[in-house]
Amino acid sequence: MSGNRITGLIGHPVSHSIGQIVYNRIFRDEDIDAMYLAIDVHDSVLPIFMKSSGFMEAFNVTIPHKVSVIPFLDRLDRTASEIGSVNLVINRDGLKMGYNTDYDGIDYALSKNGASVTGKRVLVSGTGGIARTVIRYLLDHGAREIDVITRNVDRARNKLDFSGIGILQDTDKDYDMFINCTPLGTFGQGNPFRYFSFRPGTTGLDMVYNPVMTEFLESIRAAGGKAVSGMDVFIGQGLRTLDLVFGIRPERLFRMYSEEALDEIRQS
Questions:
Q1: pLDDT recorded at residue 3
Q2: What is the predicted pLDDT for the residue at 111?
Q3: Measured between alpha carbons, how far is residue 201 from residues 159, 175, 178 in Å?
Q4: CATH code at position 164
Q5: Least CB-packed of 81, 108, 157, 266 within 10 Å?
């Protein structure tokens, strides 16, 4: 494999990502002449990187660039435009095209686990690009009530310009679903809902995938609820990414290599 088609991930940091392992093994098995790189791009370096990013056919975008990358793009697909968050950039015909495949990942994860947001009262933790995607998904699929919990209410109101949602610093309301859109829980560190009590039937969705079962999800499961891992979100958005860039959806390989990569990281 010479790696003529260069793809990858940009963010800060990117050391937690398993994408480099997963995608490169899929390219090998599918006999695709491509390579996937993980590139740590500091906020201050983003404009320079975007100016010189034409050498990459496509790249995923993670924290903290999912919103800040948008001014550097020529076009957005409808989903990315409506949400205001991009996690995939494709260089095509000299244009930088922005896509949001996180939306597909959320739908894949919930469907895979038999979970629905319709008619549910939902509490979201986080105000970044993935939170914007989650809120758009909740609105599109008929959530009954949507609240966001955050330490800085004024800042959150500026970042989350959706009508029909509550932005709270604290709450004692009863919810059917809790969704973590923060990095808390990565490598087993932190739980955004540690002061909440869950009841049987509650659904928890975590965007963190390392570990697969975070402290938050373990609490949901212990209470008799349904735990939906960020691993399924990662797989769902990855399958959509591969479909858009290479025209393939290798679900079995993506899941197998994602699980292998986490095992290897834990043992290293």
A1: 53
A2: 98
A3: 31, 10, 12
A4: 3.40.50.720
A5: 266
Catalytic residue among 66, 96, 159, 226: 66
**Residue 199 tokens, joined:** 């009841």
pTM of the model: 0.94
Specify the CATH number for the domain of residue 240. Answer: 3.40.50.10860
Whole-number pLDDT of residue 1:
39
Who contacts 117 (Cβ-Cβ below 8 Å, separation ≥6)?
110, 137, 138, 141, 142, 143, 177
Same domain as 151, residue 131: yes
CA-based angle 220:240:4, to the nearest 5? 130
Least Cα distance to 257 among 230, 238, 229 occurs for: 238
Same domain, 206 and 249: no
| Residue 66 is a catalytic residue | yes
Q: Give me the average pLDDT of each 10-residue run along the chain (268 residues).
A: 81 93 98 97 98 97 96 97 96 96 98 98 96 97 97 89 92 97 90 95 96 96 98 98 98 98 89
The two three-digit tokens of residue 6, written as one number: 């260069």
> Quick one: 83 and 199 in the same domain?
no
Give the containing element (helix H, strand E) for 123: strand 121-125
Tell me the C-alpha distance between 215 and 112, whole Å: 21
* Parent domain of 198: 104-231
